[in-house]
Amino acid sequence: MSYLLYVAFFGAAATIFLWLRDARIFFRTGLSGYRKAAYWGVLYGALGTFGLLCTIAGDMFELLGLGLILAALYLQGRMTREKIWTGTESTLERALGSVKRPASNKK
Fold it and tell me: What residues have CB less than 8 Å from 75, skipping those under 6 apart?
């Protein structure tokens, strides 16, 4: 087993984590950019998981699998999203996708 397997596990986990964070932000705010990012995150998560499976498959496919995971992370980062943070949040709040819910129109 190569050390690249650990890199592949971390990359695939990061891809899935970013997808779930985008989905959480969409469910809390309803912003269309995060909706699109959450939908495409399903595809990128599947691509990252397939890359992990290619890396596990053997020595011949290790670099192909890592390339697929890297492509999934790159494409996921290129999605355009709305600005939702003001700069007063901590790094942990941003990493977990903790945003304030918009005020409802109650009278």
Answer: 40, 44, 47
Count of Cβ atoms closer than 10 Å to residue 54 Cβ:
20
Q: How far is CA 11 from the centre of its chain?
A: 10
Chain Cα centroid distance, residue 37: 9
Q: With contact defined as beta carbons under 8 Å apart, do 56 and 83 qualify?
A: no
How confident is the model over 48-77, as pLDDT tens digits?
Answer: 999 999 999 888 889 999 999 999 999 998
Q: Render pLDDT for 71-106 as a digit per residue (tens, 0 to 9).
A: 999 999 888 888 888 888 888 888 888 887 776 655
Q: Which amino acid is at 79?
A: M
User: Picking from 11-15, 28-32, 47-51, which range would have the lowest pLDDT averaged per residue?
Assistant: 28-32
What is the full DSSP assignment across 4-33?
A: HHHHHHHHHHHHHHHHHHHHHHHHHH--HH
Tally the residues of the chain.
107
**DSSP code for 106:** -
